């Protein structure tokens, strides 16, 4: 009896070792642990059920999109890349320029009935650079408006007829602000990475960051003037405090701000922080003009950086599952982001949106989606920092009364960096 038990145990051990040896390990790294750790763990658990031959291992998460990109750029030089990396949607360009991610076109072409799994052309377009698909979108966000209905009621506003324009937002913000010194009328998360909420009001008016051949600043026209003046009005008319993004979120969740404009990605975290203290409603981003008004898609995409073919093949299975119906649905349920996968939205999440209308606000804006713009060349990241510094001069109050002058200075500084890039490329 003992001999049979020892023999069976030995066979089990050998089988386990053989299984472990047959597994292909895929190392994965993602940003923003406070938003995505639970999400990726749940998807990995589901993935393991259908792909026992692949072992997904997580590296310590990147703290931000900026850190994610800088780390991958360094690791490409030292050959220490993960096999799969999640990067900000506007960072694809810089990584492709350095030949870091693998093109996915061959994998996509080899899939049978891929569209029936919810994959579609718009998903490929988001991750396309230089005519090839290098990334698939995982979590997509759009800017929306968060409203504290309790403060709106208290200020005499109509909760059933919330504003759709910046003028209306500011009028309501003034009423809320007048409730007392501890109450803010409005906050605007202008410091979100990559100048996202600078691009939003420019694109919403039909504008662009640069001209068609990307040699000249184009945000200095009427669209940019409207955007910069509006941000200044938030300070001068709306009394917007000078807070960073986490502080804005915390202040709103504490019930001390009437209107907060930020990414839909904040929705779950903000809702959890509110904890039922007041009634929250989300509404669409204001003043998106027809027919050319658009909103930049935020969020992150997934790229394969593995060099070995076996690793790449296994990584493709990971990418496919994470962006497929099941992975996308888990992502939507655990964050405020939208899944770009059609089957996830139409099938898995149908009841979810009915029960969570605040999550549907961003989905209702999907027709307005455009690319989150990335400036070209080696100065691309520096340009975003320059823009952020000029916006800060408005939000801090230092130059809030001269938005046109700030825009002119910002245009000059960006054009100088752009000209260096264009000149170096010639």
UniProtKB/TrEMBL annotation:
Entry annotated with the keyword Transcription regulation: no
Localization per record: Periplasm
Keyword hit for Signal: yes
Pfam families: SBP_bac_8
Keywords noted in UniProt: Periplasm, Signal
InterPro entries linked: Bact_solute-bd_prot1 (IPR050490), SBP (IPR006059)
Gene3D superfamilies in the cross-refs: Periplasmic binding protein-like II
Leader peptide range in chain numbering: 1-20
Database matches in PANTHER family: ABC TRANSPORTER SUBSTRATE-BINDING PROTEIN (PTHR43649:SF30), ARABINOSE-BINDING PROTEIN-RELATED (PTHR43649)
Family note: Belongs to the bacterial solute-binding protein 1 family.
Protein name: Carbohydrate ABC transporter substrate-binding protein (CUT1 family)
Native source species: Rhodopseudomonas thermotolerans
